[in-house]
Write a structure and sequence with these properties.
Length: about 240
């Protein structure tokens, strides 16, 4: 049985607020769609600026885990791709491609061998929903977060806990102490018993460039216009 047949096409919209600002003003708007495709799903997350210009887009394919992803950041001239293959002996092989100002517009290819299921920011909600029962049972999961701008990966842990204000929170935390100090945890706030996503806090997808070429990363809060129910993925989408 194809689990994606139980999942109608869905779309969620929201606003992102930069943690560095002392005032409450949206920095970006975003929309993410999710639809059945073959035996799995396809999802597109799009970030836009104040005049509707596209700041970042991520296209991903999910079938029992992340299978491919393409990220485009047109305002900084960067495009990245990754294709994921499970290895017979365990782990994953990820073929990445990067084209940016740092590569002078040329496509650079690199292959990663990863011990844990790969994940990106846009696929985090899918990973959480697909492993909801394990998280709810108290398991600590590990994933390989793809840092495609440098064609590397970092191990992160996922833990679910009750939230003091109600509901539950899944904290996604880098194991690397330096990354943890810089970015902290990315938190997904959900219903207490179902993978219904209300908001996220932590690292955001868009990036900008300083005049010298260094990246500007954004940490902030994503608030959705309405809760995003991902319960159907919990029935058959485990990574």
């Amino acid at each position: 049985m194809n689990p994606s047949l139980d999942l109608p096409a869905s779309r969620v919209e929201g606003l992102a607020y930069d943690r560095a600002l002392g005032n409450r003003r949206p920095t970006f708007s975003l929309a993410q769609s999710l639809a059945a495709a073959g035996s799995g799903w396809r999802s597109v997350r799009t970030w836009t600026g104040i005049r509707g210009e596209t700041v970042a887009t991520e296209h991903l394919a999910w079938d029992q885990g992340l299978r491919s992803v393409r990220c485009e950041l047109p305002t900084i001239g960067e495009t990245t791709e990754a294709e994921v293959a499970a290895l017979p002996a365990g782990g994953f092989e990820v073929t990445t491609r990067l084209s940016s100002r740092r590569t002078q517009g040329q496509t650079r290819t690199a292959t990663l061998r990863l011990p844990h299921p790969p994940v990106t920011l846009a696929s985090l909600p899918l990973l959480v929903a697909a492993n909801w029962r394990r998280l709810l049972a108290g398991e600590t999961l590990q994933a390989s977060y793809l840092v495609l701008k440098v064609q590397r990966a970092a191990t992160v842990t996922l833990r679910l806990a009750p939230h003091p204000e109600g509901g539950s929170v899944v904290r996604v935390t880098p194991r690397n102490l330096i990354l943890r100090a810089i970015f902290g945890s990315t938190c997904l706030y959900l219903d207490p018993q179902r993978p219904v996503l209300h908001r996220l806090e932590g690292l955001l997808d868009p990036r900008d460039l300083k005049p010298g070429g260094r990246w500007i990363e954004y940490l902030g809060r994503i608030e959705f216009d309405q809760p995003w129910d991902l319960s159907a993925l919990a029935e058959g989408g485990r990574a």
